[in-house]
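re: ur question from yesterday

yeah so i grabbed the chain u mentioned. its 437 aa long if i counted rite. heres the sequnce exactly as i have it in my notes:
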Amino acid sequence: MGKRRHGFDWRKDSQGFELMSSKNNVEESIASAILNNPELIRGPVILETRWFGKYRGMIEAMKKVAASGVVIDAFSVSDEIGGIDALSFVCYTQTQAFGSKHNYAHYVSLLRGYFESEQVQKAITDASECIATGGDAKEALSALISTSMQLISQDGKKFDYNAKESLRNFVEKLEETLDAQDSGGIGLNLGIGGIDNELGGMQPSDLIVVGARPSVGKTSFAVSVMRNIAKRGKKVGIFSTEMSNYQLISRFVSIEANISGQVLRSAILKPEEYARLTPATSMINGFNIQIFDKPEITINELCMQARAWAADGLVDFIAIDYLTRINPNKEFGNKNIEVGFIITELKNLARTLNIPVMVLAQLNRQASNRKDKFPVMSDLRDSGIIEQEADQILLLHREDYFAQVIIEKNRHGACGVVKCEFEPTTMHWRDFSSQWN
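ran it thru and got these structure tokens back, copy pasting raw so excuse formatting
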């Protein structure tokens, strides 16, 4: 193997090697355990090189040696590191540190704890310095909480797999999906049968983009989907930049009670409508719904709040209304780049939380100038990166009562057009020719 230098920083004192801190002792024990038990590097315990300080270079070298198919030992690792002192340092670690194979998982847990403490401490220091120098306190707090939540949300996750591990995960997922058939499948159904048949439901980590021109019913579509999911006992959350929590809940009540939204706004109800209102509000009171209705929100704030919901076990699905009203954390000077940054962050959020995330998006008015009036994927404003990142793209089209959902992109299956119904008085999207339920 060619010589590579991994930037070790070991210093000698009069006794030989430096006296190490507690973290260095843990790092040394992990390195020693692997050198004496090379199979640990491929074991089930997750080990990330970023957690290391002094021994990071040695761990990187071990991973590269193992990946190349060469057995880990003092010679192969020191050769990968390079440098005249490498062999003596590796041999010392292997023979003098005495890291126990049986305590390996404990060592790794301790090391991760040190790393996380360092990250939080750094975030606190950065926040304090930001505020002390006149920086925005809210942004400083947002960055601090975001750092902490990222450490929590990534707990126990593994990102490096070989073929055998990936196949095992596939078989386990297949068995889990088969076992879930009797309870409606492993994904979240939108509750609109034609769309669910085409998509197979919304899967964990999916980013679903729903596009439509103004006044077609994007928010109504999201509310209808959320209501359907919540009625099945699942937990939903929505970020609403245009409507207040009161206005959103009134949409739920309108659909559930089958009372016109205009009637609810005027509060002039007929006796039979009053009779439907009480059971409807009782039903909605039992829904698990989280609403965040701040009109001006940055992507950092959104992700921070979403992670907080997830950490408390409050969401199985999140809707965002809508894409271009979310502000980036900094000015890019280019709208396409800003939208690309935000949509990528939303896809990362869906993956991190492992839940479906639906984001509503405006279409430009090109479709209204076409003869057939049907929207297409290129009508999405700043569509390039959206097309890249989205797992599914649904475009809404309707003419009064009759509506269509055009599945323009489906990463997991077929595309097509699904007939739906739109009830304009309650603004409810439902199955074609379905009855109220």
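noticed a couple things. The radius of gyration is 27 Å. also The longest strand covers residues 402-410.
anyway ttyl
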